[in-house]
Design goal:
The protein contains 17 helices and 17 strands. The chain is an alpha/beta fold. Helix 12 crosses helix 13. It holds the Pfam family Fer4_20.
């Protein structure tokens, strides 16, 4: 039965509290920072898409130079505070820490990064000064990580930036697409405010490309345009019963969870989640934390091919979510227009596909799950129709670029998920930096 307001206010608060609590004292941060070996040619720097000088910022914490530490982080990644909460550090910086080779716990880089960056935000330290205006104007479409990162670099160089954002708040995926126990809406707003506090960045909300503004208009009004619209269309399952009441796509479900009161969010008793990426994990764990009795994740490959990290999967398992491996949705059966059962095909692994992972092959066997809610998290697709309408050269909706960011339209640049098809927040931040560098070169700044 899909209902809401299943838990008490205290239970909701506990279930959606910060999953990675920060260091509570300066001494605790200093003790962890002093474990760092400050490697020469540090592997952690190489594995960070934004190339944060990690040993340097940690060394600055050991000398109690927290302001300097925050500057070291922000100069490479202006969303360093948010990334410290959502980055899959186990496969990036912390995963490459030399302590792993010694079978010891890696340096808690994310927690140390959070310590410095949150201090900067809490004290509103202005660590960058904006150069005098150079008279150039740039429009950015999308106030997500790529757009904000690009805007900050441009503004530092004295370029005036106007961001057109389709939602009512900035932050993009951080604000609308990530589990609430990782980042709160309040934190996301504070991060956007902190980034724009440098000045020279004006965000116009509720302005969508293709609806409220067009590329043609913007290229006429501005010296350059940067597109950072992300991805957002949920991939369909293309199976019978997909239109029944109780079938949700994970993107919309998490969006509503981020914009509604927890007690207003409907959730089933028995929920099936299709897919095993980060979004699937977020949907599954949040359904459980909203009061679902049983949550089953259905994944068509095995543990070895899973797209999520071990850490993410462990969160779901600790919350009591089950995983059906080698299973693919075949049909959703309903009663009176509502979901009642999910029929799945048993799969086996065949030859590797284009992604390098072994392809799932239908064995002909099926099994049935009794469910009253199905959440689809089988991936996201680019905004194909939109980019085609605006005349952008693309590959199945992914905007085609040269030099990492130059599109086929004069004065128009692009980056982030709308180009790469969907990666991590930290990759989008780097894409924004690359875009800004190319735009400044183009403007002759």
């Amino acid at each position: 039965m899909i209902s809401n307001n299943r838990l008490t206010e205290l239970e909701y608060q506990a279930n959606f509290a910060d999953i990675h609590p920060p260091f509570e004292t300066r001494d605790a941060a200093a003790v962890e920072a002093n474990r760092c070996l400050f490697c020469y040619d540090a592997p952690c720097i190489k594995s960070c898409p934004t190339s944060i000088n990690i040993p340097k910022f940690i060394k600055q914490i050991t000398t109690d130079n927290i302001k300097g530490s925050a500057h070291t982080i922000f100069v490479s990644n202006i969303m360093g505070a948010g990334c410290s909460k959502v980055c899959p550090v186990e496969k990036l910086c912390e995963g490459s820490c030399v302590y792993n080779l010694m079978h010891e716990e890696p340096i808690n880089i994310a927690k140390l990064q959070r310590y410095s960056t949150e201090a900067a935000m809490a004290n509103n330290w202005q660590l960058f000064s904006r150069k005098e205006s150079n008279g150039k104007k740039v429009a950015i479409i999308g106030a997500g990580p790529a757009g904000l990162s690009c805007a900050h670099v441009l503004s530092r160089e004295g370029t005036d930036v106007t961001i057109y954002e389709k939602e009512a708040l900035g932050g993009g995926l951080m604000t609308y697409g990530i589990a609430a126990y990782k980042v709160t809406p309040e934190f996301c707003k504070a991060e956007v405010d902190y980034i724009t506090s440098i000045g020279g960045i004006d965000i116009k909300y509720n302005q969508a490309l293709g609806k409220d503004v067009s590329l043609k208009q913007l290229t006429e009004q501005y010296d350059a345009v940067y597109i950072a619209i992300g991805v957002g269309e949920a991939r369909q399952l293309d199976i019978p019963g997909e239109d029944l009441a109780g079938v949700e796509d994970a993107i919309s479900y998490i969006y509503h969870l981020r914009t509604s009161d927890y007690k207003e969010m409907p959730v089933g008793d028995r929920v099936a989640v299709i897919g095993l990426g980060m979004t699937a994990i977020d949907a599954a764990t949040q359904a459980k934390r909203l009061g679902a009795k049983d949550v089953t994740i259905v994944y068509r490959r095995t543990y070895d091919e899973k797209p999520c990290t071990d850490v993410e999967l462990d969160i779901a398992k600790l919350d009591g979510c089950q995983v059906e491996w080698l299973a693919a949705p075949k049909e959703i059966i309903g009663e009176n227009g509502k979901v009642k059962q999910l029929v799945c095909s048993r799969m086996k692994l065949g030859e590797p596909d284009a992604s390098g992972r072994k392809s799932p092959v239908d064995t002909g066997e099926t099994f049935t799950l009794d469910v009253d809610m199905v959440i689809k998290a089988a991936g996201q697709m680019p905004f194909s129709e939109l980019v085609n309408t605006e005349g952008l050269k693309n590959n199945y909706g992914k905007i085609s670029v040269e030099n990492k960011t130059v599109t086929n339209i004069n004065k128009v640049f692009a980056g982030g998920d709308c180009v790469n098809g969907g990666k991590e927040v930290v990759d989008a931040v780097q894409a924004g930096k690359d875009g800004a560098a190319e735009i400044l070169k183009f403007l002759g700044v």
